[in-house]
Model the fold of this input.
Amino acid sequence: MKRIRFKGKTVLITGASSGIGKALSLEFAKRGANLALGSIPDEKDILSQWAEELESKHGITTWTFPIDLLEEGGPERLHKEVTERVGTPFAFVNNAGTVAYGKFWEKPWERQFMTFQLNLSIPMKLMYLFLPDMVKKGEGTIYNTCSVSGLQPTPFQSVYGATKAGLESLSRGVRAELTGTGVTVCALCPPYIDTRLLKMDGYPEDLRFFTISGKKSPQWLAKKALPAFEKRKLIYVPGFSAKLLHIFLLRLSPRWMVDMVSRFTLQGWSQKP
Ligand SMILES: NC(=O)c1ccc[n+]([C@@H]2O[C@H](COP(=O)([O-])OP(=O)(O)OC[C@H]3O[C@@H](n4cnc5c(N)ncnc54)[C@H](OP(=O)(O)O)[C@@H]3O)[C@@H](O)[C@H]2O)c1
Done:
């Protein structure tokens, strides 16, 4: 299969006003893609400013969609507005997400359920809404922002890991179903990236795992992700240390050891056990 050339193609990115989504939008813009950018309504002005900057620096066209995906009917509204104003996008990055840190049963249920919705049921619904038209057009790719956290259990962020494992499984399953349609699904599995996500909801700044793996920048990730996107890689884990830890060592280690190491490394150094 030929490499995708994004020049002149339309790419929809959710969660594009900060972090990974913002960095990915820059790399798409550098390649000449026109961008439909989503964010929560509160970030409307920041998103518009970013979209204008991308237009003026890279000579592309942008559209903004400040829509709360967690609101009743949010995914349907995004689908309707994008389809009416832009048409069916060539590519779609399911990127908006959140994390809840703490013991599973001690976090408010509403917070756990919101993590489940934003990270799994909403991306699933968006795929469900956009895929029929993409299949009709016979071209395009959905990129799901999963995580290395979906490749093994993640104590203290168990719901997060479960949603990312679910999204990766969904990506693989639907990709197989799409064989021969010209449309495909890819899963991006980043390691720890220094964004707002790792500062929210009690996330420990001194997580033991950071001592092993460090934190990469969103720009580092986006520069690595785009070539993988162009090649339509099914599952892409960027960086040598992430591949070593989350693919190679994981396959060699017994489950009890993975669970024990996960429990130790996913707590802060200053946290009481
Ligand atoms: N950081 C990491 O270590 C890491 C590692 C692997 C995977 N990921 C995944 O990468 C994705 C992006 O996260 P990030 O690290 O870049 O964190 P981030 O900067 O907090 O980005 C999250 C994005 O989701 C958007 N969002 C949140 N709630 C929303 C809602 N209700 N409706 C619409 N959009 C909403 C936010 O929009 P606003 O900016 O408008 O608030 C924001 O742009 C997530 O799916 C995350 O799970 C992150």
